[in-house]
Design goal:
Blueprint: E1 5-7, H1 12-20, E2 26-28, E3 39-42, H2 64-70, E4 75-79, H3 84-93, E5 96-99, H4 104-124, E6 135-138, H5 142-151, E7 158-161, H6 165-173, E8 177-179, H7 181-185, E9 196-199, H8 208-213, E10 219-222, H9 232-235, E11 238-240, H10 244-248, H11 250-265
Parallel strand pairs: 1-2, 1-3, 3-4, 4-5, 6-7, 6-9, 7-8, 9-10, 10-11
Helix pairs in contact: 1-11, 4-5, 4-11
Length: 267
């Protein structure tokens, strides 16, 4: 007998994920009371935005401890970027769990959607075309690689910085212009003329003085989940871009979520 599949609302992705899983019993829950005492419980991506509450509008402020207290040993918890505390609780209580962001295939496809969707805020919040974009891309991980590949189609003025030397070597191997920490502190002509900084690094990459050294008119896009610590003079140029797939490609993203979960659990 198929276990119940309960899906917590989060953004448009979960609506489409529920629709995609409807034939397998998937149901979008509109209240906590609708969640059965067993079965799959699918949460959002990410599971939490602030580390304190579950990322869902199902109730005004659903704290993580309160949510975990609702789970039983008959639940199977699914979410994205599950915190260590949630994983530890599940292990201690014998609750099966699955972090969808541990799926290499899903992460790669999600990064591609993020890169495609990023073109929308890039165009909407700048006065130049993508062809005139002169960007410093911070972080050459999954999202960074996809964004670099797309921007390369439009501009040659793309500089890539990553604190990891291996990531920089990877960027160089694909003929990108990789810049070092020394280049950031002592910028050459190209870096002195950038008009966009795109951060995909999960940690704050620069100190306040470094942020202030970039051109005063360049826009800063933060795609990473971490909050950038910027000086007041710089913060007014920051645009946070969380959850791009959920905003600009919710149907594709939701279908991807459903497909990955179904394949993982062989539903």
């Amino acid at each position: 007998m198929q276990l119940p599949i309960s899906i917590l609302p989060c953004d448009g992705r979960m609506e489409y994920a529920a629709e995609s899983m409807k034939r397998k019993g998937g149901k979008l829950c509109r209240s906590l009371e609708e969640i059965p005492e067993n079965g799959y419980l699918i949460c959002g991506l990410p599971f939490t935005k602030d580390g304190k509450t579950v990322n869902t509008p199902i109730t005004e402020s659903l704290t993580i401890p309160c949510f975990l207290g609702m789970l039983t040993g008959s639940h199977i918890l699914v979410g994205g970027n599950l915190p260590d505390s949630v994983v530890s609780y599940c292990i201690q209580q014998g609750i099966q769990y699955y972090d969808i962001m541990t799926s290499a295939d899903f992460v790669a496809k999600n990064a591609r959607l993020t890169a495609e969707g990023f073109l929308i805020p890039l165009l909407a919040h700048t006065s130049f075309s993508i062809c005139d974009c002169k960007a410093l891309l911070v972080g050459y991980g999954n999202c960074g690689r996809e964004i670099a590949d797309i921007l390369r189609l439009f501009t040659n003025e793309l500089y890539i910085y990553d604190a990891n030397s291996g990531a920089l070597r990877s960027a160089k191997s694909k003929r990108f212009t990789a810049v070092s920490e020394n280049d950031i502190k002592n910028p050459f002509r190209g870096l002195r003329q950038i008009n966009a900084i795109i951060n995909t690094s999960p940690v704050n990459p620069f100190d306040g003085r470094t942020w202030e050294s970039f051109p005063a008119d360049c826009k800063i896009f933060n795609i990473a989940s971490c909050a950038l610590k910027l000086p007041p003079s710089v913060s007014k140029r920051l645009l946070s871009c969380p959850g791009i797939p959920g905003k600009y490609a919710p149907k594709t993203a939701g279908n991807m979520i459903a497909k990955d979960i179904c394949e993982h659990f062989k539903l």
